[in-house]
Amino acid sequence: MRLFPKRQKIAVVEMHGTIGGSVKSPVFERILSGVRRDRRIKALVLDIDSPGGGVPTSGYLYRAVARIAEEKPVVASIRGVGASGAYLIACAAQRIVASPSAIVGSIGVISIRPVLQQLLEKLGVSVNVNKSGALKDMGAFWRDATPEESQKMQSLIDDSYADFVSVVAKARGMEESRVRELATGEVFWAPKAKEVGLIDEMGDLDRAIDLAAELSGAPRRPVFVGPRRGLRQRILGPFAESLVETVIDEAERRLWMSAFRY
């Protein structure tokens, strides 16, 4: 007999927005750590709507969710987009549920950097660099990459891609060769994603919560856990907050265009 069953609950954590942008590693690591330590929380539902983001942040949050999955049932619910790094995080769950109209996949790695050499030359701007090693300014925007730098960058991408494929293969019970056939960077509508084995079933957030209750044996008592709203959000209100966050996310995206991204 369970004592105080009403005190048991299911945590629902929203991951909406770019990984590394709206979904910031330090904030969500604290949230997930709290979920893991709270004995009253018997299961976790990840409410995902994200196109992915930076490799380091996605990998870090994947491991944070995986630690919870070692102790409690975890269900990932993809409501809109669960692509790239967001799909990687979803793979830490024991079950993945997606809305029929959700977009899933984009398994792969990309590195993009602007090259402004010609623009700087037209503006009469030159860049003087002192560095300790030949590769210290690899990825610099003021010049083209050298053949060695391109090779090094591709090697890093290949290593990250191999890790991604390995995670998906283990999570979905597939051979890595099969995952590589799907890991072309393309996305799938949820029905196709289910057909090829990237998700378990189609359904909404309520279905994911029901499933978490079934797996944990806990009462269907969801509690929504998320970042604390700062003073700016409280003052500006929902509409202005959304506008400001959109501008900030776009600025962060442009600043980190040269970073590795899932």
Major beta sheet, specifics?
8 strands, mixed
As an assembly, this protein is single chain
Shape-level CATH architecture: Alpha-Beta Complex
Order of helices and strands: EHEHEHEEEHHHEHEHEHE
Mean pLDDT: 83
CATH superfamily membership: 2-enoyl-CoA Hydratase, Chain A, domain 1
| Shape field | elongated
Q: Number of folding domains? A: 1
Portion of residues within helices: 40-55%
Word description of this protein:
The N and C termini lie far apart (45 Å). The protein has helices spanning 25-37, 55-69, 85-90, 117-122, 147-172, 176-182, 190-196, 205-216, 231-255; strands spanning 9-16, 41-50, 74-83, 95-98, 103-105, 110-111, 187-189, 201-202, 222-225, 260-261. It is α/β, with parallel strands linked by helices and 262 residues long. Helix content is 45%, strand content 18%. It contains 9 helices and 10 strands. The model is unreliable at 236-242 and 252-258 (pLDDT under 50). Helix 2 links the parallel strand 2 (41-50) and strand 3. It is elongated and about 65 Å long. Helix 1 (25-37) packs parallel to helix 2 (55-69) and helix 5 (147-172) packs across helix 6. The strands form 2 sheets. Strands 1, 2, 3, 4, 5, 7, 8 and 9 form an 8-stranded mixed beta sheet that branches. It has one domain (5-261): Alpha-Beta Complex (2-enoyl-CoA Hydratase, Chain A, domain 1).
